[in-house]
Amino acid sequence: MLLGMSEDLLITADWVLPVSSAPLRDGAVDVRAGRIHAVGLAAELPGGEAARRLDLGSAALLPGLVNTHAHLELTALRGFLEEQDFFAWIRKLTETKYETLDEDDLLCSSRLGVAEAISAGITTIADIADAGVSLAALREGGARAVLYQEVFGPDPSRAEESLADLRDKLESHRAAGADRVTIGISPHAPYTVSTRLFKLLAEFARAEGYPVSVHAAESAAEGAFVRNASGPFADYLRSRDIEVEPLGVSTIGYFEEIGLLATAPLLAHCIDCDADDLRRIAASGAGIAHCPKSNATLAHGAAPLGAMLAEGIRVGLGSDGVLCNNTCDLLEEARFAALLQRAGSEEDYPSAGDFLRLMTLGGAEALGLTGDIGSLEAGKLADLCAVGLAAPHLQPVLDVEATVLYSASARDVVLTVVEGEVLYDGKSLARSDPRSLEEPLAAIRRKLGVAG
Ligand SMILES: [Zn+2]
Asked: Do 323 and 411 have their domain in common?
């Protein structure tokens, strides 16, 4: 299979799952000039004259998967911080990120993350970047992305300085340019960003039109910090002579009060949310990155997915960093989300089709990109993936949506296409060779003090 150039394609498969409409048996997608020209039955779509034919046979062709929350720069820390409580985890992460790893390490880490995502059928990544080097890895790898430049700053007296620093970083991202990457901003979380800085960033984002993403209502410790100015985050800031006040509201209530919710941000996690919080989120038009495996890994609990969907909130799935997930595999994420929903509720739970929607069109909705991606429809960008169905662990296919959701994983992905460019053919990546990362990853292991 030819890799790495945008071309007209006629892709046929035993199943086509457009997501916006019912699955098609023996379907086809006609791709021309990087966009979807038509979707239909293979027998009825002749394809363009110059189109290359790709017959996938026993496979399900889907919209490219949309990962609404990732930290590509931290991919090389997979498995580094297991079994620690959240405060210890985040302290150790911060220390390692700034004191042990340099920009070259974070770039290698991002390259690994992009390679993993593309070979998992992920075509769009909402990436939270601190150093900002993941932009280069995304550009090289050919993935579509929203890169949210992360901002930290718990000391209110330094808020203006943080904003000036952010402006510089955004300027350098703009200069670096990448057609498939939109730039946004991400104030980290209530316990690492002062109210003053949050307000400045909300104003700046609204004035300049930057999309915003923020970690929100992720843990009980965060709730105690915002509501009562108590717990480990408050103690830590006080130890740095930073004043913290009890606010008497939830994180979402706080975001509403300071004008952050008015930017309709993409909220990552939203575990500690009650019915009022969800109503506020729905009314603001904000989206949610639902990260069930990360939430479980960090022992934070389960987010109220059913109630979020019932409120009509735009919800997508997020892997979060592999540091707190171990894999960037949205098929596994969706399966885990579905099983968690069943385990935690006796109410009606969403169908397999609903979860396939979450990892595609739902993600596009959460990112505000439904005009271009999220479903297989004529006119949208040709961002696609295919899941092979021939392997024994996937047979027999009695209900294709249930097979893809409950039996398949990223390892079954046989094709990833972004804008008509085949980036992965089930064996090789078009634009990178993961073997080139072996040496820099070995160097990172040594820096982390891991032998071998
Ligand atoms: Zn995160």
From this structure: no
Residue 382, domain extent:
9-63+374-435
pTM for the complete prediction? 0.96
pLDDT per residue over 420-452, tens digit each? 999 999 999 999 888 999 999 999 999 988 865
**Amino acid letter, 23:** P
201 CA distance to ligand 1 middle (Å): 18
- Same domain, yes or no: 37 and 115: no
CA–centroid distance, residue 55 to ligand 1 (Å): 38
Any domain includes 348: yes
Which is nearest to 365 in space by CA: 442, 287, 284? Answer: 287
Spatial CB neighbours of 114, under 8 Å, sequence gap ≥ 6: 72, 125, 134, 137, 138, 140, 141, 143, 432
CA of 400 to the centre of ligand 1 (A): 32
The answer to the question of residue 4 being in a domain is: no
Clarify whether residues 26 and 84 are in a common domain: no
Ligand 1 centroid to Cα of residue 294, in Å, is 9
Q: If you measure from the C-alpha of residue 54 to the centroid of ligand 1, how many angstroms do you get, rounded to a whole number? A: 37
> Do 38 and 75 share a domain, yes or no?
no
User: Are 269 and 399 within one domain?
Assistant: no
- pLDDT tens-digit profile of 23-49? 999 999 999 999 999 999 999 999 888
For the chain, how many structural domains are there in total?
2
